[in-house]
Amino acid sequence: MQAYLLNLGVLISIYSILAITLNFIMGYAGIFSLAHAVFFGVGAYTGALVAMSLSASIFVTVPIAMVVAGVLSLALALPALRVRGEYFVAASLGLQVLAVTVFSEWKSVTGGIGGLIGIPPVDLVGYQIYRPAAFFPLSLAVLVLVLVATRLLVHSSFGRSLTAIRDSESAAESFGKNVPLIKTISVVISAALAAIAGVLYAHYLAFINVESFTLDTSVLVMAMVIIGGTGTAAGPVVGAALLLLLPGLLSYMSFLPQTQIGAIQQIIYGLGMAVLMIFRPGGLVGRSKAKARTRPKDPDTEAQAPASRPAEAAR
Amino acid sequence: MTASAATNAAARPVEAPEVLLEIRNLEKHFGGVHAVSNVSMDLRAGIVTTLVGPNGAGKTTLFNLITGHLVRSGGSLRWLGRDIAGMKPYRIARLGIARTFQDLRLFNDMTVEENILTVMEPGALPFSLSGPSAREKRAKVEHVMERTDLIDKAHVRAIDLAYAERKFLSLARIMAADARLWLLDEPASGLDPNSYETFLRLLREEVAAGVTVCIIEHNLDIVVGISDRIAFLDRGRLLADGEPKSVLENPELTAIYFGDRA
């Protein structure tokens, strides 16, 4: 039982890091990415390969994984951030599909479908950490670090610039903000921090393959952010915990037909999400409906004179 | 002559003041529509210019061309002699041209204080190494909030403000931006008489402090009250450009403006 809870704790920590880093671009920059699992995967593969060939020290694996994921995220950010929001979603979906193919076909590096096995445990200043009782505090500590780092960023001038761009891109650039550069930096930061979750994951399971880094994972992480509360501090953690605890809780409900538990879980997810979005569109931690209603993207547009319409449409 | 025009006249040297922005033969076509056609004018330091004209005359399009939000179809734009046509909006903004929007475009989810603070931080780095210190920035934000009567609303989100307060926040933002040229798109529309007086006072103070202003305005009281010069646009063409009296007393222009189009 204790092992079960510790295992859950580790997974919640890892997925919380993913949700926090996705929330950083979704909630504060308004960038909706369906490729977050790619950077989770890049972090995991990089961490695993470095640990197997160079060093399993967390101070080696994590920085290298962060740099690799950050650099690769430029492949998404540079071309895609020049287009409008909805196109970015499509571009990120494309990257996700592409990455899954690479993960499963580049056999010499990723081990193909079979994945990488025998990843050494993480090394923290000489101590090998593999037992869940030791790994859980480590993952929790990393989660706290990532949470603090993103909070500091959100409340820095950079965070204000991000929010300003999300609220009104044209006004932000009218006040000197280099919108593509700021968005690109935010995507790189998000990807690099997501890679940390990947490194932890690889060490913890000692085995990784492409199945952990598919579109399903990207969608799951996005669901965690939305359910918990986009643009809130605690929301992503709440969302991650809830979505990972739900399967376990359901299996304790003995009145449910246990053979159908998978289907029941999907129905509960679907219904829960729909109901939540109707009554609490800001997520569990977000603002209540009454407040959320008063925040359309640009409430003044109806007051606009026709003269400025073609101007905006032509941009 | 009004107070502001008088102060401008007093501060003005004998020869015409320096040209900040030189617009020559500016063109903008949307498909077959000529939104701006062959417009030439100079915006000179310290001079308050008001753009008037019916809806659809191309006034906002002209602003969008100056700020780089739209790319011109022809003609030239020079800021202090430097060609700025084709520059990105953020680079033009950094040269010292700031604007407000007719639809305000506040940073709705941010507080009043954050709205003002963020325009003082154009850099992309998370923590700026140069520029004003955090304390200096806070002091300036406070000063701007006091002048625009927003000090009590410092921690209110922009979206939750009343209409007039939103208008003043849009002004506060531009006041904090330290720009040399302000392009104001209908800044006074919808203000009650009290707020309107406050707005006029603020604008006069800023002009006296050296800001050059170009306003799009329909309210003729404002137009006459604070303008040194009026530019009359209709269907993308600049029909007149001169002293307020001469433009407003031109029967042909007033006929266009008030809708008695022949």
UniProtKB/TrEMBL annotation, chain A:
Q: Which membrane topology describes this protein?
A: Multi-pass membrane protein
**Pfam families, A to Z:** BPD_transp_2
Bias (Low complexity) = 302-315
Query: What are the TM regions of this chain, as residue ranges?
Result: 6-25, 32-52, 58-78, 134-154, 185-207, 219-246, 266-285
Its recorded name reads Amino acid/amide ABC transporter membrane protein 2 (HAAT family)
Give the residue ranges for region: Disordered: 289-315
Q: What taxonomic lineage is listed for the species of origin?
A: Bacteria, Pseudomonadati, Pseudomonadota, Alphaproteobacteria, Hyphomicrobiales
Q: Which UniProt keywords apply?
A: Cell membrane, Membrane, Transmembrane, Transmembrane helix
Q: Which top-rank group of organisms is this from? A: Bacteria
Against InterPro entries, the record matches this protein to: ABC_transp_permease, LivM-like
Molecular function GO labels = branched-chain amino acid transmembrane transporter activity
Q: Name one GO cellular component term.
A: plasma membrane
Q: Where in the cell is it found?
A: Cell membrane
Major place of residence:
membrane
UniProt entry tagged with the keyword NAD: no
TrEMBL record, chain B:
SMART domains, alphabetically?
AAA
Q: Which PROSITE patterns match?
A: ABC_TRANSPORTER_2 (PS50893)
Q: InterPro entries, per this entry?
A: AAA+_ATPase (IPR003593), ABC_AA/LPS_Transport (IPR051120), ABC_transporter-like_ATP-bd (IPR003439), P-loop_NTPase (IPR027417)
**One GO CC annotation, please?**
plasma membrane
Q: Which residues form a coiled coil?
A: none
Official protein name in the record: Amino acid/amide ABC transporter ATP-binding protein 1 (HAAT family)
The UniProt keyword set, sorted, is: ATP-binding, Nucleotide-binding, Transport
